[in-house]
Amino acid sequence: MDTTEITALLDARSAAIHAKDLDRLMSFYADDIVYFDVVPPLFYAGADAMRDRFADWFARWSGPIGQQTEDVHVEDGGDVAVVRMLIRTSGTLATGREVGYWVRATDGLRRGAGGWTIAHEHVSLPVEFPQGTAAMHLVPGG
């Protein structure tokens, strides 16, 4: 199984997020993307909804958005693939506050005539029970 194209796509996506390059970022997503995010609503559907969501997210940062991936696992099944990974997002928010936190992410990809695109993405944070708050202090292996 050669996963070079998929890992290159993920690296390029991280670079687009770091640069807050919305057009480049959207090029990695299928037009019919379904995206489960850590923020409401329950999901976003379609490229237009994702463009709006990413534009809003980018505006919440004063500079580049750090993207560090760990524990990337790719399962390639021909014209479909599933990727699971941990992603550390970091940087300075528009409020001036420095942040850094790890999320869990799972991507479902399809290969078409133009190459791989992300057709489904699920990003989550663990929850501290019974408080019901996000566990943003966790680190890989910890």
Task: Give a quick rundown of the structure.
The chain has 142 residues and is α+β, with helices and mostly antiparallel strands. The protein has helices at residues 4-19, 22-26, 47-59, and strands at 29-36, 44-45, 66-76, 80-92, 98-112, 115-124, 127-128, 133-134.
CATH architecture assignment:
Roll
Would you tell me which CATH topology applies?
Nuclear Transport Factor 2, Chain: A
Broad structural category = alpha+beta
Shape: globular
The proportion of strand residues reads 35-45%
The percent of residues in helical segments reads 10-25%
Return residue spans where pLDDT drops below 50 for at least 5 consecutive residues. Answer: none
- Give a count of the beta strands, DSSP E runs of length 2 or more: 8
GO molecular function, one term: isomerase activity
Domain SnoaL-like: 6-127
Protein name: Ketosteroid isomerase homolog
Keywords: Isomerase
Describe it for me?
- One of its GO terms (molecular function) is isomerase activity.
- This is Ketosteroid isomerase homolog.
- Keywords: Isomerase.
- This protein is an alpha+beta fold and 142 residues long.
- The protein has a single domain, classed as Roll (Nuclear Transport Factor 2, Chain: A), CATH 3.10.450.
- The protein has 3 helices and 8 strands; from the N terminus they run ααββαββββββ.
- It has helices spanning 4-19, 22-26, 47-59, and strands spanning 29-36, 44-45, 66-76, 80-92, 98-112, 115-124, 127-128, 133-134.
- The strands form 2 sheets. Strands 2-1-6-5-4-3 form a 6-stranded mixed beta sheet, with helices on one face. The protein has a two-stranded antiparallel ribbon with strand order 7-8.
- A hairpin with a 7-residue loop joins β1 (29-36) and β2.
- The longest helix has 16 residues, at 4-19.
- The radius of gyration is 15 Å and the shape is globular.
- It starts with a helix and ends in an 8-residue tail after the last strand.
- The mean pLDDT is 95.
